[in-house]
């Protein structure tokens, strides 16, 4: 009798627990907040300047992962956004960077360029057609037979379109020429309420009154160089040509994202029924006007102060409009930062200048000396060299052999750590370093040769001031979940960026994106 009673009790507890798990409703609204260039070390270092309702509340009540691992090299905003939403790396999703070389036109194009669609309030033609796998927002649309609502809002075009995915109801970003919120006809008709918002509240109507100056007194900002004792003050309207570009690289853009978010919540049915919806938001936490931290130490600290306040305002808005008990919020970073180029001569750190155009020219001369006259190097871009496949085929040459010989030749150049041929990346032996480069490489859109530049060396772009100093050190990127069903915890073990998408689809009770192979994270009880 005792044994029978014990078994009955165990079965009751088991089925009771299963029933409780089954009956747990998915969130009515999933908010994916991606903060471009958010750094966990800065977030922690400036915490004395925060209030209690932003970062501190998330850390206190959320499920916090202190380190998100990014499993591929060369991450930037677009490749990070595509990976976060697709749950797979550029090797499958096809987004290898903000821009890539178009092998048909031999010109660099945006990862969201698409001439088949027109722009709304912009002359840019955009779509997610270059994103080659589904996103978790796509899977939600499929699972609900298009009943779910998906909107994306971001300061930049690539972030908005890639986070919206293929099936969203709309993607909105700021036109950096006109100051109007814009979109693309790919997602259908531009909402009427967006047009009214542009006519009444868009940034261009208010930019003359926008001023960014320190939130606190100068003495509160403790991480300052010795010479910095005067508060900054930026009036964006003073910049005739670049005022909206400057706005997008300031923390004030996060308040603009919040204002438009409130408009979307007011005029759509997001979170109003039991079908899960998704709102994808992007904030900015990088350097002002892409200047160095040494130049803008006070600005960077104030950026995090204002970011903290923007997050607090977003939480209040979601509580008021939807109820936080109906919301699952995910906050994470794009996992990179604008390069901070130090004066190498002054500090005597190892390094130099790497010129990809010179490498490409000398490589072509080498290939002509080896295989005869011809333009073997067709193009070069972003540490990659593209060979002329048609010429190689017409000469009846072995492409894999030329790729491997070219890689060996490039290894002789100063500043080159290693050169990888497409043949080696796709069919060669495995190592952890090769795996990270393979994950960043897509065989249809990447070059024939990938050059790994030594740390400390500056990649000099011809006809451009955008020179980047190479660092191998990974950025400490945070990840946290907050809201319905989330258990309060802090996890210091690194977790993969690829696990975010399946974690969110698991919460919504739908399948993971088509290219995802990572497991979901345990964030509930």
Task: Please characterize this protein's 3D structure.
- With 525 residues, the chain is an alpha/beta fold.
- It has two domains: 23-337 and 475-508, Alkaline Phosphatase, subunit A; 353-469, Gyrase A, domain 2.
- 35% of the residues lie in helices and 18% in strands.
- Strands 6-9-8-7-12-1-13-21-2-22 form a ten-stranded mixed sheet, sandwiched between helices.
- Helix 7 links the parallel strand 7 and strand 8.
- Helix 4 (77-86) runs parallel beside helix 7 (157-164), helix 10 (252-267) packs parallel to helix 11 and helix 13 (356-371) crosses helix 15.
- The radius of gyration is 25 Å and the shape is globular.
- The model is unreliable at 1-22 (pLDDT under 50).
What is the secondary structure topology, with strand pairs?
Blueprint: H1 2-23, E1 29-36, H2 40-45, H3 55-61, E2 63-65, E3 68-69, H4 77-86, H5 90-93, E4 99-102, E5 107-110, E6 119-120, H6 136-143, E7 150-154, H7 157-164, E8 170-174, E9 181-184, H8 192-200, E10 211-212, E11 234-235, H9 243-248, H10 252-267, E12 277-284, H11 297-321, E13 327-333, H12 344-347, E14 353-355, H13 356-371, E15 377-381, E16 384-387, H14 389-394, H15 399-410, E17 416-421, H16 422-427, H17 432-440, E18 449-453, E19 458-460, E20 468-469, E21 479-483, E22 489-491, E23 495-496, H18 500-508
Parallel strand pairs: 1-12, 1-13, 2-22, 3-23, 7-8, 7-12, 14-19
Antiparallel strand pairs: 2-21, 4-5, 6-9, 8-9, 10-11, 13-21, 15-16, 16-18, 17-18, 19-20
Helix pairs in contact: 4-7, 10-11, 13-15
């Amino acid at each position: 009798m005792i044994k029978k009673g014990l078994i009955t009790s165990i079965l009751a507890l088991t089925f009771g627990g299963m029933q409780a798990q089954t009956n747990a409703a998915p969130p009515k609204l999933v908010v994916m907040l991606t903060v471009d260039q958010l750094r966990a070390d800065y977030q922690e270092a400036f915490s004395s300047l925060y209030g209690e309702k932003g970062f501190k509340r998330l850390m206190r009540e959320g499920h916090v992962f202190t380190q998100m691992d990014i499993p591929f090299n060369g991450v930037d905003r677009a490749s990070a956004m595509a990976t976060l939403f697709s749950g797979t790396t550029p090797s499958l999703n096809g987004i290898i960077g903000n821009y890539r070389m178009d092998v048909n036109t031999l010109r660099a194009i945006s990862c969201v360029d698409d001439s088949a669609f027109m722009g709304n309030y912009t002359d840019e033609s955009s779509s997610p057609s270059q994103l080659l796998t589904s996103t978790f927002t796509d899977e939600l649309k499929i699972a609900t037979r298009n009943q779910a609502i998906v909107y994306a809002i971001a300061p930049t075009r690539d972030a908005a379109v890639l986070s919206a995915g293929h099936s969203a109801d709309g993607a909105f970003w700021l036109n950096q020429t006109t100051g109007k919120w814009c979109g693309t006809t790919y997602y259908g008709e531009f909402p009427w309420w967006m047009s009214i918002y542009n006519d009444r509240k868009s940034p261009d109507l208010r930019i003359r009154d926008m001023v960014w100056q320190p939130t606190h007194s100068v003495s509160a900002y403790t991480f300052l160089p010795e010479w910095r004792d005067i508060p900054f003050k930026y009036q964006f309207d003073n910049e005739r040509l670049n005022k909206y570009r400057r706005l997008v690289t300031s923390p004030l853009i996060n308040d603009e994202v919040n204002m438009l978010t409130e408009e979307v919540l007011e005029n759509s049915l997001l979170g109003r029924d039991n079908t899960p919806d998704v709102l994808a938001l992007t904030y900015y936490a990088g350097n002002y006007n892409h200047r160095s931290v040494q130049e803008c130490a006070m600005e960077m600290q104030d950026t995090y102060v204002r970011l903290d306040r923007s997050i607090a305002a977003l939480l209040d808005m979601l509580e008021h409009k939807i109820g936080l008990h109906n919301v699952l919020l995910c906050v994470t970073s794009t996992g990179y930062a604008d390069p901070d180029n130090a004066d190498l001569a002054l500090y005597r750190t190892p390094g130099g200048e790497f010129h990809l155009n010179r490498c490409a020219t000398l490589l072509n001369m080498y290939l002509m000396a080896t295989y005869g006259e011809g333009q073997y190097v067709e193009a070069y871009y972003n540490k990659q060299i593209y060979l002329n496949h048609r010429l190689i085929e017409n000469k009846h040459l072995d492409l894999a052999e030329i790729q491997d010989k070219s890689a060996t030749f490039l290894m002789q150049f100063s500043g080159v750590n290693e050169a990888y041929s497409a043949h080696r990346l796709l069919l060669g032996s495995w190592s952890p370093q090769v795996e990270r480069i393979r994950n960043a490489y897509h065989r249809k859109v990447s070059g024939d040769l990938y050059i790994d530049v030594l740390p400390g060396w500056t990649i000099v772009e011809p006809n451009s001031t955008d020179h980047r100093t190479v660092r191998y050190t990974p950025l400490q990127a945070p990840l946290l979940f907050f809201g319905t069903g989330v258990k309060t915890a802090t996890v210091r073990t690194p977790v993969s960026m690829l696990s975010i998408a399946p974690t969110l689809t698991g919460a919504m009770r739908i399948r993971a994106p088509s290219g995802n192979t990572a497991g979901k994270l345990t964030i509930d009880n």
